[in-house]
């Protein structure tokens, strides 16, 4: 009998530890962002939307970060009922980080021919739902972003685009294989001078004195761009991170040049080739980094780094795709947009993730008229069921469809799950997961062990009593 108890206990512990390892594979919550329908930039357009076929296809896109990824295709049947040619400028807003932007993944076609577009960089996304929010759905009114679509250069408070600064280029050559900790000391008045540095991995400020340091294990190029009053700096070399063991076993050369701040920022942009910039104009990229530089200089008392600026490309922000199409008089045309999107992953209340998606429909209200919205959702194998939605869907052969004659009052939201319903057992395990986190499988395993052991003990005592 004791052997049976030990065997069962061992099996449950192993099973619980297996689940425990699996539960630690990722976060319990990962924020996704809404998709949107196309919107008009021009007012009083006569163009009508006679039908929209909206497809979410999860079958081939897999995972992006910790959430499932869908290929969204929005096909619009549109008409121009007037006797005149109508050129219409349209915008398609979406949320992404520039470092993840792959322009070829966004396809716009008009009457089955791909058309060119430009991407405008908007503001970062703040205030979205987090892991401690009650809801993972977030609405966003994209109409406000139309005011951000501009080709004018950003006007900074701390500099003008044509202001000239002094660029120090420092070529450091260590004399030892183990490298040196190269240091520069100077002081400056941050009310009169702004400094942008590149290549340094440490800096400090104390009593008006500034120290920049850079570990150099091989020849390195360091840069200091000074805008405003010039600086006088002192160079030192150290063998340690604490800057106590000095060394002179290194060479360095300082070159100076006078460069406009706008031109210098563009060299940053052009040297950063990790993102797809083909459809982003230089003005948009300049505005992104100029605004960041302006904010950093004011926030950090006149000193910031190239890495601070380049970190802007990792922020989730509104990006707006803008293009122009021509509708012939009394004509019917097809407009199609295809792109990738990912939803919110949430397993705070269930043992397996809930995947939620939002699609913003309110821009479609700006057309002359809009009717016949057809929605098709092809779910993934990991989460084949819609367990929540604000629109009634019909399921056939694993595919969900909905047919609406007009736009719904609210934007589209739906949630996918691995089961057809979130059952009582899911809720109980989810509740335990909220209380005990990653230790939930251990707690569940301990409860099962206790129940089985109690049953075995009762049976054992019952048989012992009968034997007497």
Residues in helix, %: 10-25%
Specify the number of helices: 6
User: What can be said about the biggest beta sheet?
Assistant: 9 strands, mixed
**End-to-end Cα distance:** 18 Å
**Helix/sheet category:** alpha+beta
Description:
The protein is an alpha+beta fold. 21% of the residues lie in helices and 39% in strands. The protein is built from six helices and 28 strands. It has helices at residues 2-23, 261-271, 282-299, 306-310, 424-436, 440-467, and strands at residues 29-30, 35-36, 39-40, 48-57, 63-64, 67-80, 86-96, 107-110, 113-114, 118-124, 164-174, 180-187, 193-198, 202-206, 209-216, 220-228, 234-238, 250-260, 303-305, 317-327, 331-342, 344-346, 354-360, 373-378, 385-389, 394-396, 399-404, 412-417. The strands form five sheets. Strands 4, 5, 6, 8, 9, 21, 24, 26 and 27 form a nine-stranded mixed sheet that branches. Strand 14 and strand 15 form a beta hairpin. Helix 1 packs antiparallel against helix 6 and helix 5 packs across helix 6. Residues 10-25 have low confidence and may be disordered.
Using brief descriptors, characterize the structure shown.
28 strands, about 40% strand, alpha+beta, about 20% helix, about 475 residues, six-stranded mixed sheet
Question: What topology emerges from the helices and strands here?
Answer:
Layout: H1 2-23, E1 29-30, E2 35-36, E3 39-40, E4 48-57, E5 63-64, E6 67-80, E7 86-96, E8 107-110, E9 113-114, E10 118-124, E11 164-174, E12 180-187, E13 193-198, E14 202-206, E15 209-216, E16 220-228, E17 234-238, E18 250-260, H2 261-271, H3 282-299, E19 303-305, H4 306-310, E20 317-327, E21 331-342, E22 344-346, E23 354-360, E24 373-378, E25 385-389, E26 394-396, E27 399-404, E28 412-417, H5 424-436, H6 440-467
Parallel strand pairs: 2-23, 4-24, 13-19
Antiparallel strand pairs: 1-22, 3-7, 4-6, 5-6, 6-21, 7-20, 8-9, 8-21, 10-20, 11-16, 11-18, 12-15, 12-17, 13-16, 14-15, 22-23, 23-28, 24-27, 25-28, 26-27
């Amino acid at each position: 009998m004791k052997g049976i108890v030990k065997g069962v206990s061992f099996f449950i512990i192993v099973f619980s530890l297996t689940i425990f390892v699996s539960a630690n594979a990722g976060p319990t919550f990962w924020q996704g962002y809404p998709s949107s329908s196309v919107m008009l930039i021009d007012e009083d357009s006569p163009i009508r939307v006679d039908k929209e076929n909206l497809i979410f296809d999860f079958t081939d896109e897999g995972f992006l970060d910790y959430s499932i990824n869908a290929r969204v295709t929005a096909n619009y049947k549109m008409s121009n009922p007037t006797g005149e040619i109508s050129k219409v400028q349209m915008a398609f807003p979406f949320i992404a980080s520039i470092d993840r932007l792959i322009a070829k993944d966004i396809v716009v076609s008009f009457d089955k021919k791909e058309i060119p577009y430009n991407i405008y960089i908007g503001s970062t996304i703040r205030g979205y739902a987090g892991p401690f929010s009650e809801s993972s759905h977030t609405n966003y009114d994209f109409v406000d972003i139309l005011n951000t679509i501009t080709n004018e250069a950003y006007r900074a408070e701390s500099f003008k685009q044509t202001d000239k600064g002094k660029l120090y280029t420092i070529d450091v050559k260590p004399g030892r294989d183990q490298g040196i900790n190269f240091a520069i000391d100077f002081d400056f008045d941050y009310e009169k001078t702004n400094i942008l540095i590149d290549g340094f991995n440490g800096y400090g400020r104390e009593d008006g004195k500034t120290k920049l340091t850079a570990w150099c294990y091989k020849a390195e190029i360091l840069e200091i761009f000074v805008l405003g009053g010039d600086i006088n700096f002192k160079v030192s070399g150290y063998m340690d991170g604490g800057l106590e063991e000095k060394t002179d076993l290194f060479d360095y050369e300082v070159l100076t040049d006078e460069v406009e701040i706008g031109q210098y920022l563009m060299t940053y942009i052009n040297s950063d080739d990790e993102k797809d910039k083909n459809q982003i104009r230089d003005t948009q990229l300049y505005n992104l980094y100029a605004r960041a530089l302006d904010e950093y200089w004011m926030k950090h008392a006149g000193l910031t780094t190239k890495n601070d600026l380049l970190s802007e490309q990792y922020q989730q922000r509104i990006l707006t795709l803008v293009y122009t199409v021509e509708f012939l008089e009394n004509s019917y045309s097809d407009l199609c947009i295809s792109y990738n999107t990912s939803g919110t992953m949430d397993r705070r209340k269930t043992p397996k993730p809930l995947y939620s998606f939002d699609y913003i429909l309110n821009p479609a209200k700006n057309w002359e008229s809009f009717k016949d919205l057809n929605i098709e959702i092809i779910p993934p194998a990991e989460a084949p069921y819609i367990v929540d939605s604000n629109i009634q869907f019909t399921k056939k052969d694993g595919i969900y469809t909905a047919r609406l004659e007009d736009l719904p009052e609210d934007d589209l939201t739906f949630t996918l799950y691995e089961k057809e319903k979130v059952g009582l057992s899911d809720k109980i395990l989810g509740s335990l997961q909220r209380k005990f986190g990653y230790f939930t499988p251990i707690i569940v395993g301990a409860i099962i062990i206790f129940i089985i052991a109690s049953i075995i003990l009762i049976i054992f005592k019952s048989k012992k009593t009968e034997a007497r």
